[in-house]
Amino acid sequence: MTKHLIRVKDVVKNFDGLNALRSVSMDIEAGKIEAIIGPNGAGKTTFFNIICGLETADSGSIYFNDVDISKTSSDKIANLGISRTFQTSQFFEHLNVIENIMVGRYLKTSVSFFLAGLWLPKIYREEHRNMVKAFEKLEFLELYDKADRKLSQITFQERKLIEIGRCLAMEPKLLLLDEPFGGLNITEIKFLAEKLIQLKQQGMTILIIDHHFGTISNIADEIVVLNHGEIIAKGKAEKIRTNEAVIDAYLPS
Questions:
Q1: What is the chain's Cα-based Rg?
Q2: Given CA atoms 123, 150, 204, 250 in this order, what sign does their dihedral have?
Q3: Which class is domain 1-81+172-253?
Q4: Helical (H) or strand (E) element with 23
Q5: Where in the chain is the domain with CATH 3.40.50.300?
Q6: Is the pTM of this model over 0.85?
Q7: pLDDT digits (tens, 9 = 90+) for 161-212
């Protein structure tokens, strides 16, 4: 039987009378790359926000690993194994690269706030484990030599990778990427696409929002198309590319 990591059923979200999402349903299979495309204002980011608990659906249900997370807070959802990036990268500017990655380890820290202030041997061991894990993510993203750099010293592409690395440091089961290819050049897009395929090969489940249809069509197992809050098509890239409703709403002729 196919194992669906996440199941979304009839999700509805309205903002002041505007239908942001209209009875959206989809299943995401574990170990796959799923992509959501659509014009601006289609409801893509709202859908992400609802999955990770930043917003609550007006109706409908979301199950993650067979657990109903429809009304669950964002911190608890993150603890269950869902991590996300944002269209505009979020950083702690006063921290260096490796420290920004280590922020993603906080959910894996078993030491209480009180004990952390005492710097007992257990704290040092925990800090060392977190550091090792953070460096593993930097090495995977080929940023190992940038660990001590300030954020003001790194490129736009590297910032994108660092945000993904921080998400990976949380060891998620589901990685949500909001426009990861935005602003990257062809070489940088190819590099990131290859890394996402590697993550899939390692068993990671990935859900992507992006406008780069060419890249998405090469790496996604399935593409879902949203328009005005509704799913108008879903399937393999070749099916989406020739869908008349998708062409009219989104793809160039």
A1: 19
A2: positive
A3: alpha beta
A4: strand 18-29
A5: 1-81+172-253
A6: yes
A7: 999 999 999 999 999 999 999 999 999 999 999 999 999 999 999 999 998 8
